[in-house]
Specification:
This protein is mainly beta. The protein is built from 1 helix and 6 strands; from the N terminus they run E-E-E-H-E-E-E. The strands form 2 sheets. A 4-stranded antiparallel beta sheet has the order 1-2-3-4. The protein has a two-stranded antiparallel ribbon with strand order 5-6. The longest helix has 6 residues, at 76-81. Residues 98-102 have low confidence and may be disordered.
Length: 150
Amino acid sequence: GSETVMPDDWNLTKSSCVEFLTWDLTRAPGLYTCYKMQHSLIEGPNGEQLLVNTITYGNGAEEPWADCPSAATWDPETLAADPLAGGSARVHFQSTYSNYVYDYEYDYGTPQINAYDPCTWSCYAVSEGECCKDETGFPYTCGTKPAPEE
């Protein structure tokens, strides 16, 4: 499990976790590093939203999945108590990005992929009827995408 620490009067509205593995070629060549990441969409008292990712990583091991931390955490006591946790990072998304990211052309002025929409998260547990797909098959939260112009 993971815990989301927030400012006073803020609430967790959506959350998901994922675990992934990398094979290190730079920091510790030949070692696998396991990561646990939690996406948290939090909302303030005036409706403002923040997307926060907490990533906790292992120390590196010769065997895949051998160094997985117990949870994605930002709490120093939880981190120190986990012998498999090598450290943690927290990222606050400040922008989303457009479809052009895959063509190596960034266009922050016209965001087309909404990172704040949990239906775009690969590890989000969807409730029935919550997520829809557009004409290209890209997911979004039902009822949030405007109808196409005629």
